[in-house]
């Protein structure tokens, strides 16, 4: 087997060099080929036609371990990559030790997440694993020292993960970091109808847009996801329909800022949501993702109506980050504390019982003790049931990283103080004794309960009765904790089967068409030839000849590469039982 290529391939097409035969030349090369009949050898160690040669690498048969960090958008990307790889024949494994290749899907929001990512790369290399990197870290800073020589799949190129994995398994380093565009206009990303493996077969995560309209001084994600690019409404509705047909009973809408959806394509979030609720079956629910205050302000009336819809959770995640206007200005958040309060107060009035979740950064550069006390007062005022507390970490390349920093000890103490305030109140005590309708979708971390959510997306633990999974049931609340309630199903209550179809099995690939099943089967039936018989770069191309169905019309290999590969395959088939010499 030739040594692995050390040079980095910026794209798959780079495996075809100027020295390789052109399609026209290869068409007539057969006149100079004189076949010989291969003599049969009865020795036991002779390679048979049914076995791959010992020095070949056959893509599509390896085991792949996928690790994802970060937000639900990143998790959705990970599900899509797993689905495409599994559909093409790779085995997705939960055992990192037995995997041939690690696909590491990173998050760049905070330093600890990137540290875990970096350590995983080191561990993979120590274990002699092949590595493909994905997510926001390599997209934002692909030239970091610890990423050198490794394959990277960009956040908008996840529909080409099969190509990158195949070349990486062969020893190449491939980097696809480009943007999806249509007539020069940036698109939301890869197609929504790609195969995927849902982490939870009952929950579909739909990214409605990528990027945002802000330029927050602390945010590294902007460097990776870029400016706002929204998917068309019809594509999102089609994706929701397909999900329900596959047994999904809960949809999460996600993006870097759902409130900004549609501004780049002449529509808005309420318009999308009204279209989506039309296709949600009885017993299924829709959960809205994070939205920043500036964009939700324009649609408060419509959003209140939507959040009161019986098939939409009365839940909204609105990050405030700080209750100091001076700190918000330094963050370039484009709103003031009064704007945030206006949104929260209006929704609390119009959507009784609504759950408002928020984020707070402790120790942002320039934050004074007085600034922090304003934040403490805001939390005391609203007593948020869900609060994400983050100690500030300066991210490389962001304006905030260059600002005068708050001492580490002060940041740590403020984080501790806010955490103590958050844990000083119990938001669900007053709900003990209530009768609630909940949707059961997953198992608890300790495996002792099933996890359900009520209409306000508050967590309710119920008994582990397999008949409850994927169902909407009524329960009596008998206990409350800081982050959950416990409920006992009511014996005489009606049970709603939310799904309109049987859910897919865990690990089953979503969205496969018969066309793809046939294509994948044909591709996996190809046989490799010994390395001495076919030029190295032609062999590297041959497995890429079959364009994946979701790449039709763009994003696949160039015509030259495909032509060379197809001809190479024909040669392999024609002379499969003969020995050639030029």
Automatic annotation (TrEMBL):
<keyword id="KW-0408">Iron</keyword>
<protein>
    <recommendedName>
        <fullName>tRNA-t(6)A37 methylthiotransferase</fullName>
        <ecNumber>2.8.4.5</ecNumber>
    </recommendedName>
</protein>
<dbReference type="GO" id="GO:0046872">
    <property type="term" value="F:metal ion binding"/>
</dbReference>
<dbReference type="GO" id="GO:0051539">
    <property type="term" value="F:4 iron, 4 sulfur cluster binding"/>
</dbReference>
<feature type="transmembrane region" description="Helical">
    <location>
        <begin position="556"/>
        <end position="576"/>
    </location>
</feature>
<dbReference type="InterPro" id="IPR006466">
    <property type="entry name" value="MiaB-like_arc_euk"/>
</dbReference>
<dbReference type="InterPro" id="IPR005839">
    <property type="entry name" value="Methylthiotransferase"/>
</dbReference>
<dbReference type="InterPro" id="IPR006638">
    <property type="entry name" value="Elp3/MiaA/NifB-like_rSAM"/>
</dbReference>
<dbReference type="Pfam" id="PF04055">
    <property type="entry name" value="Radical_SAM"/>
</dbReference>
<dbReference type="InterPro" id="IPR020612">
    <property type="entry name" value="Methylthiotransferase_CS"/>
</dbReference>
<dbReference type="InterPro" id="IPR058240">
    <property type="entry name" value="rSAM_sf"/>
</dbReference>
<dbReference type="InterPro" id="IPR002792">
    <property type="entry name" value="TRAM_dom"/>
</dbReference>
<dbReference type="InterPro" id="IPR038135">
    <property type="entry name" value="Methylthiotransferase_N_sf"/>
</dbReference>
<dbReference type="Pfam" id="PF01938">
    <property type="entry name" value="TRAM"/>
</dbReference>
<feature type="domain" description="MTTase N-terminal">
    <location>
        <begin position="62"/>
        <end position="170"/>
    </location>
</feature>
<keyword id="KW-0472">Membrane</keyword>
<keyword id="KW-0411">Iron-sulfur</keyword>
<keyword id="KW-0949">S-adenosyl-L-methionine</keyword>
<keyword id="KW-0808">Transferase</keyword>
<keyword id="KW-0256">Endoplasmic reticulum</keyword>
<keyword id="KW-1133">Transmembrane helix</keyword>
<dbReference type="GO" id="GO:0005789">
    <property type="term" value="C:endoplasmic reticulum membrane"/>
</dbReference>
<feature type="domain" description="TRAM">
    <location>
        <begin position="429"/>
        <end position="491"/>
    </location>
</feature>
<dbReference type="Pfam" id="PF00919">
    <property type="entry name" value="UPF0004"/>
</dbReference>
<keyword id="KW-0819">tRNA processing</keyword>
<keyword id="KW-0479">Metal-binding</keyword>
<dbReference type="GO" id="GO:0035598">
    <property type="term" value="F:tRNA (N(6)-L-threonylcarbamoyladenosine(37)-C(2))-methylthiotransferase activity"/>
</dbReference>
<dbReference type="InterPro" id="IPR007197">
    <property type="entry name" value="rSAM"/>
</dbReference>
<comment type="function">
    <text>Catalyzes the methylthiolation of N6-threonylcarbamoyladenosine (t(6)A), leading to the formation of 2-methylthio-N6-threonylcarbamoyladenosine (ms(2)t(6)A) at position 37 in tRNAs that read codons beginning with adenine.</text>
</comment>
<dbReference type="InterPro" id="IPR013848">
    <property type="entry name" value="Methylthiotransferase_N"/>
</dbReference>
<feature type="domain" description="Radical SAM core">
    <location>
        <begin position="198"/>
        <end position="429"/>
    </location>
</feature>
<dbReference type="InterPro" id="IPR023404">
    <property type="entry name" value="rSAM_horseshoe"/>
</dbReference>
<keyword id="KW-0812">Transmembrane</keyword>
<comment type="similarity">
    <text>Belongs to the methylthiotransferase family. CDKAL1 subfamily.</text>
</comment>
<keyword id="KW-0004">4Fe-4S</keyword>
């Amino acid at each position: 087997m030739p040594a692995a290529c050390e040079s980095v391939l910026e794209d798959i097409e780079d495996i075809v060099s100027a020295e390789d035969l052109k399609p026209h030349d290869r068409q007539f090369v057969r006149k100079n080929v004189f076949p010989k009949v291969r003599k049969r050898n009865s020795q036991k160690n002779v390679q048979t036609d049914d076995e791959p040669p010992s020095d070949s690498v056959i893509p599509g048969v390896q085991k792949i371990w996928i690790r994802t960090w970060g937000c639900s958008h990143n998790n959705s990307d990970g599900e899509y990559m797993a689905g495409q790889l599994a559909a093409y024949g790779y085995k997705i494994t939960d055992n990192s030790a037995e995997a041939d290749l690690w696909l590491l899907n990173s998050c760049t929001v905070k330093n600890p997440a990137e540290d875990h990512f970096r350590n995983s790369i080191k561990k993979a290399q120590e274990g002699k694993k092949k590595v493909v990197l994905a997510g926001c870290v390599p997209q934002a800073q692909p030239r970091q020292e610890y990423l050198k020589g490794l394959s990277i799949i960009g956040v908008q190129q996840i529909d080409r993960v099969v190509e990158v994995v195949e070349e990486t398994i062969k020893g190449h380093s491939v980097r696809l970091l480009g943007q999806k565009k249509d007539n020069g206009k940036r698109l939301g990303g890869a197609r929504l109808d790609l195969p995927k493996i849902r982490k939870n077969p009952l929950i579909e995560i739909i990214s409605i847009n990528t990027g945002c309209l802000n330029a927050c001084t602390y945010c590294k994600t902007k460097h990776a996801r870029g400016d706002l690019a929204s998917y068309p409404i019809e594509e999102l509705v089609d994706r929701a329909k397909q999900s329900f047909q596959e047994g999904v009973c809960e949809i999460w809408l996600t993006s870097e800022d759902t409130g900004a959806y549609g501004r780049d394509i002449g529509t808005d979030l309420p318009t999308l949501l009204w279209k989506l609720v039309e296709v949600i079956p009885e017993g299924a629910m829709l959960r809205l993702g994070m939205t920043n205050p500036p964009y939700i302000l324009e649609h408060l009336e419509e959003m209140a109506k939507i959040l009161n819809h019986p098939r939409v959770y009365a839940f909204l995640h609105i990050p405030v980050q700080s209750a100091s206007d001076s700190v918000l200005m330094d963050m370039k958040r484009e709103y003031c504390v009064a704007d945030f309060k206006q949104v929260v107060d209006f929704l609390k009035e119009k959507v009784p019982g609504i759950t408002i979740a928020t984020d707070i950064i402790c120790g942002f550069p320039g934050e004074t003790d007085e600034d922090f006390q304003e934040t403490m007062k805001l939390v005391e005022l609203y007593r948020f049931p869900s609060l994400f507390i983050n100690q500030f970490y300066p991210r490389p390349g962001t304006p905030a990283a260059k600002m005068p920093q708050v001492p580490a000890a002060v940041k740590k103490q403020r984080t501790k103080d806010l955490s103590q305030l958050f844990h000083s109140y119990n938001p669900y005590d007053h709900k003990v004794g209530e009768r609630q309708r909940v949707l059961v979708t997953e198992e608890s971390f300790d495996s002792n309960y099933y996890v359900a959510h009520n209409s306000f997306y508050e967590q309710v633990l119920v008994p582990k009765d397999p008949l409850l999974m994927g169902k909407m049931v009524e329960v009596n609340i008998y206990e409350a904790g800081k982050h959950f309630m416990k409920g006992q199903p009511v014996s005489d209550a009606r049970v709603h089967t939310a799904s309109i179809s049987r859910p897919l099995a865990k690990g089953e690939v979503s969205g496969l068409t018969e066309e793809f099943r046939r294509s994948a089967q044909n591709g996996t039936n190809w046989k490799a030839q010994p390395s001495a018989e076919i030029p190295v770069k032609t062999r590297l191309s041959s497995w890429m000849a079959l364009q994946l169905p979701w790449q039709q019309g763009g994003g696949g290999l160039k015509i030259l590469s495909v032509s060379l590969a197809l001809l190479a395959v024909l040669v392999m088939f024609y002379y499969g039982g003969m020995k050639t010499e030029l």
